[in-house]
């Protein structure tokens, strides 16, 4: 339960910080992280946990979890999404990390960012996976946390959300 409370607090902190940070133009407009695309965590019973959050906290669930929709920075016509998603505690998706959480970061300029990381000696753990709603790749931070970089296609992601929302 403490881990779930921590996850909710992290999400709230991010959303507040993100909102404040978008009041001004970003300093770095090159390849970079632009926000959190999702908080993924392990759970004993993801279906029951999703039902609990839906019933008690009003989260609307889809196939993968609950999407938080927001508008991007100064352009209120552009939608963005942050996914809250419990995974089975036996998932191998977080490997090689042994942690309970994985954060998905939204990025701009994924290929240039990967080139910058490579020149700093930081290599991804897999190759870029392309999907209609964006491109994904994983790497490990210095403390052994697996992180996911996602260059989103929010127009296509919005279509996916409409298909999976229950």
UniProtKB/TrEMBL annotation:
One of its GO terms (molecular function) is lyase activity. Keywords: Lyase. This is Enzyme related to lactoylglutathione lyase. It holds the Pfam family Glyoxalase_6. Signal peptide: none annotated. InterPro entries: Glyas_Bleomycin-R_OHBP_Dase, Glyoxalase_6, VOC_core. PROSITE patterns: VOC (PS51819). Residues 35-152 form the VOC domain.
């Amino acid at each position: 339960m403490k881990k779930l409370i921590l996850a909710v607090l992290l999400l709230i902190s991010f959303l507040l910080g993100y909102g404040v940070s978008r009041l001004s133009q970003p300093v770095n407009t090159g390849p970079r992280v632009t926000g959190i695309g999702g908080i993924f965590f392990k759970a004993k019973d993801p279906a029951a946990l999703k039902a609990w959050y839906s019933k008690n906290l009003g989260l609307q669930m889809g196939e993968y979890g609950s999407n938080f929709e927001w508008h991007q920075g100064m352009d209120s016509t552009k939608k963005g999404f942050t996914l809250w998603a419990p995974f089975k505690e036996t998932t191998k998706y977080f490997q090689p990390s042994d942690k309970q959480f994985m954060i998905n970061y939204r990025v701009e300029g994924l290929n240039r960012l990967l080139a910058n990381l490579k020149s700093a000696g930081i290599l991804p753990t897999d190759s870029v996976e392309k999907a209609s709603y964006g491109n994904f790749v994983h790497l490990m931070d210095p403390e052994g946390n697996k992180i996911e970089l996602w260059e989103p296609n929010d127009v296509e992601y919005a279509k996916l959300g409409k298909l999976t929302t229950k």
